[in-house]
Specification:
With 290 residues, the protein is an alpha/beta fold. Helices cover 31% and strands 26% of the residues. The chain has a domain of 131 residues: Rossmann fold (3-Layer(aba) Sandwich). A hairpin with a 4-residue loop joins strand 13 and strand 14.
């Protein structure tokens, strides 16, 4: 996988494996902050349909630090995806507050990227045009002033970063499953999000491709250090990826425990055989009462 363009820079500034401790300059001298801080306070959500009332979340509290990688882990129906959609601004909450960098979430924002299990690329657009779609739509709404040459240069750098520099003119059906996921990452990165929200993005992939995507995601996060909230029901996946794991469950559903993952960075697939990894898995199983 290519890590940079010819100048060693990307949409957030220099591509580096070192954590970012201060703002970085993007193309044209634009100052980009590190990842956003997310504060979730006493969030509750109830769905009502045809006289049936379902409590999806109750009194959820969680703070995610700037540049932190946090996994939401739990069984199906525990409210993980509901919480993620609330943070994304795609779903209204009933009670509580969500702030991103101190600003209340009141709807979707280009600062918050959202990735699903399906890459959801536009099938009629090439990889490059899929990547450029978001920024050009933002520009049409007056949300930024990046001109076409700057956008094209950024798209080229990101294509190289995600290892798709030779597939910019390919359509989604011409890409493998892993390549489509990398294209979806590239599209999210082009909007320069400070927060990336991921809803079981690798759940439909085969085991080998999934391992490769874990490595890819860890490398991307290590380079850009945006904040990531990642939904999963896979214990091993959560331990490999996260700084902390927020275990969800209970009746009504909430966050029942938040566990630190004491593994050093950077990480790779070989970490799954270490005693620290196995100890973390046992702690999570205990928190899930498995």
């Amino acid at each position: 996988m290519g890590a940079s363009n010819s100048n060693g820079t990307g949409p957030y500034g220099p591509l580096t494996a070192e954590p970012r401790t201060s703002s970085a300059a993007g193309p044209g001298g634009t100052v980009r902050p590190p990842g956003a801080e997310v504060v979730i306070g006493s969030v509750s959500k109830t769905f009502r349909r045809r006289g049936r009332r379902t409590v999806a979340l109750s009194g959820v509290d969680l703070t995610v630090g700037s540049g932190e990688f946090v996994c939401l882990l739990g069984a199906s129906g525990c409210g993980k995806s509901t919480l993620l959609r609330i943070v994304a601004g795609a779903l209204d909450l009933d009670e509580g507050t969500v702030t991103v960098d101190g600003r209340p979430v009141s709807g979707p924002s280009p600062d918050r990227g959202l990735l699903f299990q399906s890459p959801m690329l536009f099938p009629w657009l090439t990889t490059r045009k899929n990547i450029l779609f978001g920024p050009k739509a933002q520009r049409s709404r007056g949300l930024h002033e990046r001109d076409d040459p700057e956008l094209e240069a950024e798209a080229g750098a990101i294509l190289e970063t995600v290892g798709l520099q030779q597939f910019g003119d390919a359509f989604p059906h011409e890409l493998s499953g892993g390549m489509r996921h990398r294209a979806a990452f590239a599209r999210a990165l082009m909007t320069r999000p400070s927060l990336l929200l991921m809803d079981e993005p690798f759940g439909a992939l085969d085991a080998i491709t999934r391992l490769r995507m874990h490595e890819f995601l860890l490398n991307i996060w290590q380079q850009y250090r945006m904040t990531i909230i990642f939904v999963t029901h896979d214990i091993e996946e959560s331990v490999l990826l996260a700084d902390r794991v927020a275990v969800m469950g209970g009746k009504p559903p909430t966050i029942t425990e938040v566990l630190d993952i004491p593994l050093s960075r950077p990480r790779d697939a070989e970490d799954v055989d270490t005693e620290a990894f196995l100890t973390s898995k046992r702690r999570i199983r205990s928190a899930l009462a498995l």
